[in-house]
Design goal:
mainly alpha
Length: about 70
Amino acid sequence: MRQVRLEADAAYKQITGRINALIIVNGETVYKTFVDELNQRIERYSNNAAIRSGQNSKDNPPPASEN
């Protein structure tokens, strides 16, 4: 799974680099709607991941420290 994640991250960086280059060449207005929608999706998925991570930590609390 780790290898797949690394490959997906590399592909994402490549795609965003190309989109940014196109914005520089062609102007922002052509890509604004696409970029705004993509950013909303990224934010939604990030929020969902954070919520799931928080739920998982509640289910598996860290062991109590011995004092």
